[in-house]
Amino acid sequence: MRINQEAFLAARKGKKALGDKAKGVGAGRGPGVGRVNGHHQENGMENMTLFEVVKAGKSATQAVVDDWIEAYKHDRDVALLDLINFFIQCSGCRGAVSGEMFRNMQNSEIIRKMTEEFDEDSGDYPLTLSGPQWKKFRISFSDFIAVLVRQCQYSIIYDEYMMDTIISLLTGLSDSQVRAFRHTSTLAAMKLMTALVNVALNLSINMDNTQRQYEAERNKAVAKRANDRLELLLQKRKELQENQDEIENMMNAIFKGVFVHRYRDAIAEIRAICIEEIGVWMKLYSDAFLNDSYLKYVGWTMHDKQGEVRLKCLTALQGLFYSRELGARLELFTSRFKDRIVSMTLDKEYDVAVQAIKLLTLVLQSSDEVLTAEDCESVYHLVYSAHRPIAVSAGEFLFKKLFSHQGPEEEGLPRRGRQSLNGSLIKTTVFFFLESELHEHGAYLVDSLWDCGSDLLKDWETMISLLLDEPMPGEEALTDRQETALVEIMLCAIRQACECHPPVGRATGKRVLTAKEKKTQLDDRTRITEMFAVALPLLLAKYCVDIDKVTNLLQIPKYFDLDIYTTGRLEKHLDALLRQIWEVQDKHTDTEVLEACSTTYHSLCNEEFTIFNRVDIARSQLLDELVDKFDRLLEDFLQEGEEPDEDDAYQVLSTLKKISAFHNAHDLSKWDLFTSNYRLLNTGLQNGDMPEQIVIHAMQCTHYIILWHLAKVSDGTSLKAFTILCDLLLIFSHQIMSSGREQLEPLVYTPDSSLQAELLNFILDQVFIDQDDDSSTDGQQDDEASKIEALHKRRNLLAAYCKLIVYNVVEMNTGADIFKQYMRYYNDYGDIIKDTMSKTRQIDKVQCAKTLVLSLQMLFNDMLSELGFNVDRSSSAFCGIKELARRFSLTFGLDQMKTREAIAMLHKDGIEFAFKEPSPQGEGGPPLNVAFLDILSEFSSKLIRQDKRTVHMYLERFMTFQMALQREDCWLPLISYRNSLQVGGDDDTMSIISGISSRGSTVRSKKSKPAAASKRKLPEGEQWTLFCSSTDAVWMNREQNVQTPVMMHSPHLTSTVLRDPKKMRPEDSYAAAYAMPTEHHVKYQTLSHSTQVTWMLTQRQQAEARQQQERVSMHYAKMRNHIRRGSGLMEDDEEPIVEDVMMSSEDRLEDINEGMDFDTMDIDLPASKNRRERTELKPDYFDPSSIMDDSVLNVSMF
Hints:
3-stranded antiparallel β-sheet, 53 helices, flat, mainly alpha
């Protein structure tokens, strides 16, 4: 419901007097107390508007509101004008409502006038600006409205003037087509509504209290009844009821005038504000708002396309379900929207999915009957999600559902042990783990339950009891499969307690433990050691032959605190553990079990602990037995003239497996296993009848022997090792499959990112170093010889690594660290680096160009870190980078068509880098990396004419209107780069004609025609016609086409894409690529040689034509600036949610076109095109999408 405009206007003109409820409003401080010309004055802050005070946050909100109330009591029109301008300024509008406008203009006229005052080219306004100050402003803005209503709730809000004016203003602003007005006024209106809800709630409580007092007084005996008190209570109740009715009218006006329209606004932030506040209303004043008439808006909005809005719906509902009393009143809503909430647990936005699960947990707490078994199962499986917040929320839901209900028969059970309550809960966990059929994800299940059920998962005493103790009479024993699952869960719980971080795949980065967490970790580790030092030998003895159980049990000792074996006098249990490990390795030949035994010995053999000698003796005895047994078996196995039987082969294989498993974690060099393995492999090579498994494990054992020897080798061999490693990577790269050798694909090895980084770091540390320039010593010849030898070695290292880049063994972008050294180490490695650049360009021109610009960016960042943010473009560092860019530019050669796409991508990456970081000087300053554009301009000459226009338009997408007007020295890189992209620049003025002329001259030279033909010039008029008709006019139209939000793909033209430029006739290339009229083409081919006078006239005509083209470009730039200025205020109407919010841009563009006045040629700027019209626009011959990503293409130029 809108506020009546006539009543509102009359109220503003002062025709409506204050009501009875506003008695005493005029009393207070005299004029100017606390205010100066309507502006706030406190603590020296004179002549500051309400907006400036709230923005600064230097004054308490209470004091600001009190001053405004005093001013309102003195002159309510002036105070209201101050408040209206506060809302206008909070919207980012620089205009102000004058007293005359306030008295004589309608609300809609004021809003229209303020819309015209927006003179910024961007869409930023206080609520959307980033930074701590503006985040505090949003809070201060909301607090100001809440405090204002709270302070005025007893008198001023009932005067039928202030609230009517504010509500009418905010309602009008919320319907504005300007996003800033709509967003700010919606937030203000919703906060105003929340404040009124609090007032209504207080009135309701006061009415209830008054009614009870009245009933109590009336029920007294007649003799004791006070009639005057009854009349007073009746009068008070009547006043409260009237106030309640007025507040309800205000809330109704805001709800119907703002909320009903804005909850489906086109902007997600505005929709989120509405849903967030309605949740507050329903929670604060449930009697009035917690009904289906209001809940339906939350239910409908749960289907919103934006995750931000869906998230607000769920958090609003959580606030209701937290209260059991309110949750009971949501049965109808829950039954209607339960399926939607359940489906949101799989939302693509992780935050939304987490809150959906938490909401279902609250629903589960309020009633067990709401969620069906299918609903619960859809949440259960999320405990195995890789996203930890989702898994933890699902774990909490699972814990509430399965473990939180205790029957009366369970109250008397013991706290620990097999018969305890935890015993049954642990069994339930095992059953759930097995039923989920995701047995390999035991660590995920434990991590999901850890936050809510860590006490249960840390009850290792009960777990041990379930595994070792016999079941009680009538108790069902665990099956073998259940015992295996319990052992796995127990191991995962031990790991989680000792490592205190999620399992692999769920880690969210390293987190520093608090002091309390560290203490808990140490306590848990102590408990684990004390408990399992005794129980683990018993468990190994019981499950000695079970591979899965033994493998998991043998991983427990690595989490022990080994000091406890000594301090707790548990040496006998250590001996028992070592005996059980010996038994396990003796009975098993499975690789996993043997490696687990080896790992356990490695964990126990720590020289820092006193138990080392005891464990080392046991390990040595075990290895002595294994090596002696292997030697005996090998002698019998390799006896001449006898064929080994299967039993002998099995014995050799099993012993070799055990030795290999132990050699992986332990240095067995003193047993000289290499000789035995060499004999075994050599015999198999000669006879060819060696079993395959024996050969594999013998090679594996030999591999470990070599690795242990390499670990002892000094660092002096690192250079040779690097060269060998590079050769091996090259041999076993994808090149090995060439020439029809696809069967060798299993041998292909691709180095991972960590290995590539280590190789690169080695090169940077060992190759790019400064030599000691000391040639004055007596042994000058020896010193020079050693330097040459060292340089030769470094060149070999660099060549080995560059081969990996050339043959695509490592990523090409790793070459950026090499290419950036081109100038500094040109004398030493210039030929290698240059050849590498040449080879990489042959492989992939685009990726090579991106690597080159990346190397320049690295040098630029290094310069900033050394010299600071203020870049001196005359410094040696900057000049060095610019010179390197010039050298890089020369390597692209003269054929611009071959390197067209690569150069375009290079400019794209350079522009994005230049505007990537904001200005360190704050708003209005140049971007941090803007000086990089000066370096990038070295590559502008490599762009052809069409691509310069495209790159220039791409640059303008990053520029604001103010940037184009700047002329300070700090903006010179941007100015020079833009000039280098101008098509009429000195370097490319005749790019089209010169390109055609050069091609034509080449063809003619092949046919032995006179060379003078290549020097012909066009006549004056025809030369301008050539530029104007075939280039400028066409590109003007194309520039308009590029402004469409959706960029069309270029057609595949035979003349420019499918055919080789070298094979094209000059006339084909000319006509197809640039759409030249036929008569111009013919004249161009038949022109005679120009005289010197004709040439001078031609040059004068070119100058005049260039001036006229610049005037056209200036008018076009002005036109685009006007259009871009509108982009910050108006929004496209592609997918409107509220029809009355968006305004068509057609009228605005027609108004702009009317003001355009071009001198000699007219540019017909069409009105804003809808989607159907945009698809019919003529595409560019060069596809700008090749250098513009989707995020840029989807942004309209309007």
